[in-house]
Amino acid sequence: MSVRYKKFDMAKPPQKPAAWTVPVAKLLTLFLSKPYGGKIRKINCEGLKPPYIVLSTHASMIDFALAWEAIRPYKTNWIISIEEFIGKEFLLRQVGGFYKRKFTSDIIVVKHALTCLKKYGDVLTFYPEARFSLAGVNEEIDGAIGKLVKAAGCPVVYLSMKGNFLVSPQWNKHPKRKVPVSADFEQIVTKEQAEDLTAEEIQKIIESRFHYNEYEWQYENKIEIRSKYRAHNIHKILYRCPACGENRMTSAYTKVKCEACGKEYEMDVYGRMHALSGETEFPSVPDWYRWERECVNEEVREGKYRFEDEVRVEKIMNTSKGFVPIGKAKLTHDLNGFTLHGVMDDGSELTLHRDPETMRSCHIEYNYRKRGDALELCTMNDTYFVYPLNAYNPLTKLHFATEAVHGFVKEKKEKERQKHENF
User: Fold this and answer.
1) 3-class SS shares of the chain: helix, strand, coil, % to 5
2) Are residues 31 and 154 in the same domain?
3) CB-based contact 271:286 (threshold 8 Å)
4) Do 188 and 245 belong together in one domain?
5) CA quadruple 77, 83, 88, 89: dihedral positive or negative?
6) DSSP character for 174?
7) Would you give per-residue pLDDT tens digits along the chain (423 residues)?
8) Which residues fall within 8 angstroms of residue 192, CB to CB, at 6 or more apart?
9) What SS3 state is found at 160?
10) Nearest alpha carbon to residue 168 among 300, 94, 62
11) Helix locations, 248-308, DSSP H
12) Mind giving me the DSSP string for 365-417?
């Protein structure tokens, strides 16, 4: 018999941030970001007062301290992924946080956001990429931010951080690297623009500004990372060999190697890659990463893409119980989207399907809480973390493929719609 757990109350409105969050923010900044510099440059912010929206880059836990410091002396509400509330419900509610299931379109979240901005008159901070940066470069952002800004009629600030990814990249968070961290806090949409421009025009402004490249910044500023672990585990994102095309990369310390053809690369102190023999196809990590994405796009468009594996499934029950292992299932991903199906340990049948048009990207975690590489799949009511059991290093390709399938299917249906209208 399955155990019943109290469900998340997604409709529960956000709280106004508690008064103690302002002095605590100052302490957090001292402990988390000041050891790395933590300097903040404010641009075009004369006379800026709440309510306003902060759109921040997202690469490590330092982000929160820097955001709080930049916004101080004002308080901010936060849109926070639902799994972060596990064991911290009271605390995150006190700081003004409210739930969001990743890569779902939930009108309740919009309602809560407008409550913070229009009713409370506070700042609202969130991460429009909805995930940590994997390769120190920007990912696609939510396409409906312009509509939120228009509905709120308030300014938008872009918080662009430098060095935070390099300190603790997602593919190898520890040990932390010695890198200077700073941030630009720039108003990119004024209140007048929010009121006068269309949602589409506001969206274009935001997308045109939301760009960054940590490795380029490191190289141009000659920031040295002498850690002997500077490339350790980087094969989690650099999974495909540029020489032979196989997904058999491994990495340790400063080197990356293809187990299929034997070619090796080494990362220097400025984050540049060098082949130990033969041609260096991609000196830049982001260029290697983008090439992999292009390969997946091509695979999808040629109809050759399909993923299938047995997975271990964990479900988030609530903030007190957290993750509960529920069994094993089969996960497939192709042009029809994600399908998760299996009989769970309690005898119940689990079937989850996400249509590609409803899922613009996916959230992945390397060695999540030391339990393995995980992919997060959400419905409007439930959140599952699935752990592939047999496929070798599949997460980054799944990340690319989710976006490629979404874009391809959406484009295909738009062409069909236009063709139908022409008749």
Assistant:
1) 35, 25, 40
2) yes
3) no
4) no
5) positive
6) S
7) 356 777 888 999 999 999 888 787 777 777 777 788 889 999 999 999 999 999 999 998 888 888 988 998 899 999 999 999 999 999 999 999 999 999 998 899 999 999 999 999 999 999 999 999 999 999 999 999 999 999 999 999 999 999 999 999 999 999 999 999 999 999 999 999 999 999 999 999 999 999 999 999 999 999 999 999 999 999 999 999 999 999 999 999 999 999 999 999 999 999 999 999 999 999 999 999 999 999 999 999 999 999 999 999 999 999 999 999 999 999 999 999 999 999 999 999 999 999 999 999 999 999 999 999 999 999 999 999 999 999 999 999 999 999 999 999 999 888 887 777 776
8) none
9) strand
10) 62
11) 285-301
12) ETTGGGS--EEEEE-SS-EEEEEESSSSS-HHHHHHHHHHHHHHHHHHHHHHH
Boundary-marking domain end, from 174, 192, 220: 220
On whether both 25 and 59 belong to a single domain, the answer is: yes
- Tell which residue, 161, 210, 135, has the closest CA to residue 58: 161
Task: Say yes or no: 65 and 194 in one domain.
Answer: yes
Nearest to 18 by CA among 90, 66, 87: 90
The encoded tokens of residue 392 equal: 């070798």
- Indicate the residue type of 290: R
Residues 242 and 286 in one domain: yes
End-of-domain residue from the set 277, 301, 325: 301
Q: At what angle do helices 145-152 and 107-114 cross, to 10 degrees?
A: 40
Token pair for 180: 């200077």
- Structural domain span for residue 401: 307-422
Scanning 20-99, the segments in alpha helix (DSSP H) are 21-28, 62-71, 89-94
With tokens 């309602």, the residue in question is 111
